[in-house]
């Protein structure tokens, strides 16, 4: 016997997929028109992917650390990305930065403990911060516009957000497989 979970997928059409194409909320029948819509679509799909990797798990499973000494967990990723969304809001504004959500350093990961209240707070913080960043960027539809104190192009902010979610969705793939063996794109 082994402590390692057996690999599995819920997909029946393509056994290496997370979900069957008809059940996958990321599937769009229409390709987006234009650069802004394409970037927003990629961001939306990575956000959904992260949530899909976390669904159906208990607080204990979400808070399970990866490989010591790493503090990474699925719950930690939810908290980290809420922190990152707030940080991106700070890049957009010329005003004073909003306070860090989880203290200094690795607080998003360190505070990811197996408690339902923490899980609920993490999901709520992520949704709130995503909405706030989206609203702030909606005021700047020109991808070439430079915003904030550092005059960063809106395009760069959107691409960086996609990169951050994509990288962490890769982490989430491995974390989920370690938790219960579920695999897929």
Structural features, described:
With 185 residues, the chain is mostly helical. It has one domain: Four Helix Bundle (Hemerythrin (Met), subunit A) (Up-down Bundle), CATH 1.20.120.450. The protein is built from six helices and two strands, in the order αααααββα. The protein has a two-stranded antiparallel sheet. The radius of gyration is 18 Å and the shape is flat.
Task: Tag the structure with descriptive keywords.
6 helices, Four Helix Bundle (Hemerythrin (Met), subunit A), mainly alpha, flat, 185 residues
Could you write a compact summary of the structure shown?
The protein is mainly α.
Q: Whole-Å distance between the termini? A: 28 Å
Task: Evaluate the radius of gyration.
Answer: 18 Å
State the fourth-level CATH superfamily: dinb family like domain
| Strand arrangement, major sheet | 1-2
Strand count, sense and barrel status of the largest sheet are: 2 strands, antiparallel
Could you name the ranges where pLDDT drops below 50 across 5 or more consecutive residues?
Answer: none
Strand content: under 5%
């Amino acid at each position: 016997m082994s402590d390692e979970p057996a690999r599995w997928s819920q997909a029946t059409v393509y056994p290496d997929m997370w979900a069957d194409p008809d059940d996958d909320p990321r599937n769009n029948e229409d390709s987006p028109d234009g650069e802004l819509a394409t970037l927003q679509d990629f961001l939306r799909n990575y956000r959904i992917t992260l949530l899909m990797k976390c669904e159906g798990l208990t607080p204990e499973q979400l808070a399970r650390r990866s490989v010591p000494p790493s503090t990474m967990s699925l719950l930690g990723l939810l908290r980290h990305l809420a922190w990152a969304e707030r940080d991106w809001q700070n890049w957009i504004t010329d005003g004073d930065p909003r306070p860090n959500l989880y203290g200094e350093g690795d607080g998003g990961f360190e505070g990811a403990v197996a408690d339902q209240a923490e899980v609920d707070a993490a999901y709520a913080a992520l949704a709130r911060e995503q909405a706030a960043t989206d609203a702030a960027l909606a005021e700047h539809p020109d991808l070439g516009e430079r915003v904030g104190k550092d005059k960063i192009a809106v395009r760069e902010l959107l691409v960086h957000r996609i990169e951050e979610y994509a990288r962490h969705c890769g982490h989430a793939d491995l974390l989920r497989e370690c938790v219960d063996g579920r695999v897929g794109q």
